[in-house]
Amino acid sequence: MSDSRAILVAQRPKPRFDVAGALTRASRETGRSAVKVGMDMICRMCGAQRLRPDEYFVQGAWVGDTTARAAFVGSSSNFRLNRSLIAKGADDQTQLMADKFLSGLVLQANGFPVPELKAVFAAARMFGPTRTLISAEELAGWMGEPGQLPAFAKPVDGTMALGSIPLAAAGPGQVDIGSRVVERVALAGEVARLYPRGWLIQEQLRQPVEIEALIGPGIGTVRVVTLWEAGGPQVLYAVWRHPAPGTWVDAAIFGKPNVGCALDAEGVVTDAQMGDLFTGRAVTHSLVNPELPLVGYQLPHWPEIVEICRSAHRLFPGHALIGWDIAITGRGPVISEVNSNPLHMSYQRAYRRGFLHAEHRARLDEARRLLQKRCTGSKG
User: Fold this and answer.
1) Per-residue pLDDT tens over the stretch 151-205
2) Average per-residue pLDDT for the chain
3) How do the domains of the chain map onto residue ranges?
4) What are the angstrom distances between the C-alpha of 320 and each of 29, 40, 312, 335?
5) pLDDT per residue as tens digits for the range 225-256
6) Is the C or the N end of the chain the one with fewer CB within 10 Å?
């Protein structure tokens, strides 16, 4: 009997959220009446924060005093904030960053470490010297060629790890995608339907043994957000994201809660949160090997990670704020992706506070002012 289930996760799951139950719980835990909690939620839905009802709770905006609650951002306010830190016109490199193939070429040409590109599927586009597979049949055939796998594949212009899977050799006509074994022809057909613009096939990165012992074989990238300040790009914050146990990407696209770790200025884990700030919980030890402490762990290569992100930011002077996804591998840090619209909700979860607190506001305002001086036509 054939397996008719979808192979790729192409859309972010939308779990149901019980707002009425959340109001009751928030009232019980905060000591405020459900009416007061509800009114506060409505104010933050309609005001500058533009929080959705579920964001109000899962992002943690229901706890703390008025100032603390006002510091939280949701997906809408997050986007507006990031856009205000990007110049207009030729200095806006958002589309370049969104194209993982082109941004990878730019980074590699400037000496920054990126994953090796093995092949690309694309229905109409060519990718220079990189082998381009233009049909589902060619893609299925490539996956069956000796020595091509293991690999890791992701859309050219995808977000949140949607459409991303590992590829490993399996039985005749099959490929192992980490969670199950599927038919190569079926996978290739799905890729051709969903990602005709491009599906990158890269080397399969491996983490050092000590990190795999902590978080498993799935790559847990370090999201480093840099801000262009008076002395040049500086680290604003960093979060180490772990795949949920049994999954291969560090985004929560499989309906399982992943882990976000707050990192201090030295790259040491200070706090860790599994899931969101309403349904999740704090963790102190590895979920893979519970005897191994997670809080207090020093990430290897931290000074090198910081230097890579600060230096690479200078390639994009029209962007005051950039998010970098760094994979820690056996050959050192590797830039997995660059983001013009990093989701600061990962900060809120890991650090358990709103992103727009007073210190961040002051630094962002100054960075915005410097952007206006640096680039003609910046948004301001």
Assistant:
1) 999 999 887 778 899 999 999 999 999 889 999 999 999 999 999 999 999 999 9
2) 93
3) 1-72, 89-111+208-374, 117-202
4) 39, 32, 13, 19
5) 999 999 999 999 999 999 988 888 877 767 78
6) N
Neighbouring-strand partners of residue 239: 223, 262
Helical axes 34-46 vs 19-30, angle rounded to 10°:
120
Contacts of 114 (CB under 8 A, 6+ apart): 104, 107, 108, 334, 335
Q: Which amino acid is at 338?
A: V
Identify whether the C-beta of residue 301 lies closer than 8 Å to the C-beta of residue 70: no
CA distance 66 to 302: 36
Write out the CATH class of domain 89-111+208-374.
Answer: alpha beta
Residues 6 or more apart whose CB falls under 8 angstroms from that of 321 comprise 82, 85, 225, 226, 227, 228, 236, 342, 364, 367
> Going by DSSP bridges, is the β-strand pair 281-282/222-229 parallel, antiparallel, or unpaired?
unpaired
Q: How many C-beta atoms surround the C-beta of residue 183 within 10 A?
A: 17
Please give the helix or strand (H or E) that residue 351 lies within, else none: helix 345-351
